[in-house]
Backbone:
């Protein structure tokens, strides 16, 4: 646990990005934006794939600005699809109010450029589109559902500053009921508190206290978990592949445990950490995730 930190945009960023990685979760240079993740595909690791084939939900924990992570995601999705065409892809990168935009893209009613514009991808996520575009195109070409998982930026930002009770009825429509925003996991609280302490000066400037800060993180987790559970209840035949930051999936604290709470213990989930740090690999324990995927 001591090796992980959440990189936080606290004081001035318009988007908070929580990442669990010893690497800085920063925007890449503009010159990298044209990189196509399918140019150098990662060969699937058979031992990992055999485990993933059996899962109802597969989490591919990424560091958002690491190209190799997205190459691995594409390769894994392609391999899973060959085994089971009944696949769906759930995306932290898109926020719930823009589900209809993803649907329009899959139905060929709008172009890819219009998808980026109408979903406000650049403003609300901002990492190079070409890191995710081949995955989105693969879904379109194979008519795989795309699920917009995330809460609108404005909601967790307001929670971090003013608390859950500050949300208006309009703001609450895109997140689960407040009674489902569970902050009682003490281990998760400790993990996030370490990050909060590391950035305490910035948090103080932004007028945040830890309870609100932690609630904002959990709002993200619960919203994404609810999106996955709602989809599975409507399409139980689908295997769902979730693309999300590592901080939302490590130890199962963020999204996975909250999906199980909604779906029951019979649900089979697998978590893959993409290119984790050497410090994590040296731990020799599997509790942080089911699998590690290390790119060549």
Residues:
């Amino acid at each position: 646990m001591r090796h992980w930190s959440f990189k936080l945009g606290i004081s001035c960023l318009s988007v908070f990005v929580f990442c669990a990685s010893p690497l800085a979760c920063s925007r890449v240079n503009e010159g990298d934006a044209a990189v196509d993740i399918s140019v150098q595909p990662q060969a699937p690791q058979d031992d990992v794939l055999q485990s993933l084939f059996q899962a109802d939900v597969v989490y591919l924990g990424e560091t958002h600005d690491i190209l190799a992570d997205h190459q691995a995601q594409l390769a894994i999705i392609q391999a899973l699809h060959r085994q089971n065409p009944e696949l769906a892809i759930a995306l932290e990168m898109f926020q719930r109010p823009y589900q209809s935009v993803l649907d329009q893209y899959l139905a060929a009613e709008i172009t890819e450029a219009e998808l980026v514009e109408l979903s406000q991808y650049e403003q609300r996520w901002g990492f190079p589109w070409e890191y995710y575009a081949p995955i989105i195109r693969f879904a379109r070409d194979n008519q795989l559902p795309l699920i917009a998982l995330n809460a609108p930026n404005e909601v967790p930002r307001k929670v971090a500053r003013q608390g859950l009770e500050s949300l208006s009825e309009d703001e609450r429509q895109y997140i689960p009921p407040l009674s489902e925003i569970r902050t009682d996991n003490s281990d998760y609280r400790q993990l996030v508190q370490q990050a909060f302490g590391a950035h305490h000066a910035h948090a103080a400037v932004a007028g945040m206290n830890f309870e609100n800060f932690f609630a904002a993180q959990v709002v993200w987790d619960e919203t994404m978990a609810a999106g996955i559970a709602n989809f599975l209840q409507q399409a139980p035949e689908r295997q769902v592949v979730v693309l999300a930051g590592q901080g939302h999936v490590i130890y199962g604290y963020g999204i996975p445990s909250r999906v199980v709470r909604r779906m029951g213990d019979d649900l089979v989930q697998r978590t893959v950490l993409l290119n984790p740090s050497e410090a994590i690999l040296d731990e020799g324990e599997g509790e942080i995730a089911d699998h590690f995927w290390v790119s060549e």
